[in-house]
Amino acid sequence: MYTQAMDTMGKDGADAQGADAPRPLRSADELALQERFDARIDAGDFIEAKDWMPDHYRKTLVRQISQHAHSEIVGMLPEGNWISRAPTLKRKAILLAKVQDEGGHGLYLYAAAETLGTSRDQLLHALHTGKAKYSSIFNYPTLTWADMGTIGWLVDGAAIMNQVPICRCSYAPYARAMIRICREESFHQRQGYEALLTMMQQGTEAQKAMVQDAVNRWWWPCLMMFGPPDDQSPNSAQSMRWGIKRVSNDELRQKFVDATVEQAKVLGVTLPDPDLKWNEERGHWDFGTIDWDEFWRVVGGDGPCNRERLGARVKAWEDGAWVREAALAHANKQAMKEAA
Ligand code: FAQ
C-alpha cells in the first residue's frame, strides 16, 4: 500500500515543468516526510544534513551556497591585485588578512554545500565551465588604491546586509557558516571605511578625488549585488517560503541605501545618484533606476572582467593539479600502510 504511486502528474510531470520544478510526491511515506519537513519549516526549526528534505530544497541550497562560495574565491582576485602595491606595511597586512579571510569563507561554504551531497570537484567544475554563477560585483576592475577601501565599505557592506539574515537560514550548516563569515565581513567593512576616511580627512586633493571616483564606479554595481527586483526574481518566493532567504532582494537593497547615505555624509563623498532623496512618507531614501540591462549582461558573462576572472580561477586550478596529485598519493600511501 505504501508503495502506491501518489504521483498524479505522470512520470514526466516534473520534466514537463522544467528541470527545477518541484518533483511530485511519490508515496505515502514521502508525503509523511514532506509534511513533517513543512511543519518544521513553519515552526522555524533548523534542518540538518542528515534530515530528510525535498529534492528541490536541496537543489536550491546547492545552487545558492555554491554560488556564494564561488563569489568568495573569485572575490579574492580584484583585491589580490593590490596586495603588492599597498601604500604602507599596515595596509598590506590588513589587505592580505582580508583576502585570506575571503578564501576561508569560500572553504566554509564549499564544506556546507558538500553536506548536501555534491562534491567539491563537481562544484568547481560547474564554475570552471561557466555553468555556475558568482556575484556580478567581482567582474568590475580595481583601478586605484581607493578601490580597496571602497570594496570594503560598499561591497562588504552590501554583503553583510545580505548575509546577516542568512545566519537564520533554515539549513543549519549554511546558517552556522554564515555566523562566522558575518563577523569577519564586519571587520572588512570597517577597515574599508577607515581607509577611505583617512584619505578623505588627511589626504591630498588628488587622493580625495580618487575616493570619489571609486565610489562613483562601485555604487551602482553594489546595488545590483542584491539581485533582480522582487517581481523579477524567479527564486525568491520559494526560497522565502523555505526560510532559505529571510528578507527580499528589494528590502535588503533599500536597507543598504538607507544605511549608506548617512555613512557617505560622514565620509564627505557624494553618491552618484541625482534621484537620491529622503522620502518622509516612506521613511526611506528614494533612489534612481538601476541599469538592469548592465546587470544581466554581467551575469551572462559579458562584464568588464568576466573572462579574466574565470581564466584566473581555471589557471589556479590547473596549476594546483600537482598538489592534489601529491595529496592523493600521500593519502593512498597512508591507507596502504594502515591496511598492511
Ligand atoms: N550576481 O531569483 P534570484 C561577498 C542570479 S559574497 C550574479 O533573485 P536568488 C563577500 C541568481 O543566482 C557576494 N548572479 O536569485 C566578499 C539567479 O540565477 P540562477 C555573494 C546573480 O538566489 C566581499 C538569478 O540571478 N553573496 O560579496 C546576482 O534567490 C568582498 C535570479 O535571481 C551571496 O552569494 C548577482 N548579484 O537571490 C568577497 C549571498 N543576483 O541561480 C570578497 C548568498 C542574482 O537561478 C570581497 N546569495 N543573481 O541561475 C543570495 O543571497 C542570493 O543567491 C541572491 C540572489 C540574493 C544573490
TrEMBL record:
<dbReference type="InterPro" id="IPR009078">
    <property type="entry name" value="Ferritin-like_SF"/>
</dbReference>
<feature type="region of interest" description="Disordered">
    <location>
        <begin position="1"/>
        <end position="23"/>
    </location>
</feature>
<dbReference type="InterPro" id="IPR007814">
    <property type="entry name" value="PaaA_PaaC"/>
</dbReference>
<keyword id="KW-0560">Oxidoreductase</keyword>
<dbReference type="InterPro" id="IPR011881">
    <property type="entry name" value="PaaA"/>
</dbReference>
<dbReference type="Pfam" id="PF05138">
    <property type="entry name" value="PaaA_PaaC"/>
</dbReference>
<dbReference type="InterPro" id="IPR012347">
    <property type="entry name" value="Ferritin-like"/>
</dbReference>
<dbReference type="InterPro" id="IPR052703">
    <property type="entry name" value="Aromatic_CoA_ox/epox"/>
</dbReference>
<protein>
    <submittedName>
        <fullName>1,2-phenylacetyl-CoA epoxidase subunit A</fullName>
        <ecNumber>1.14.13.149</ecNumber>
    </submittedName>
</protein>
<dbReference type="GO" id="GO:0097266">
    <property type="term" value="F:phenylacetyl-CoA 1,2-epoxidase activity"/>
</dbReference>
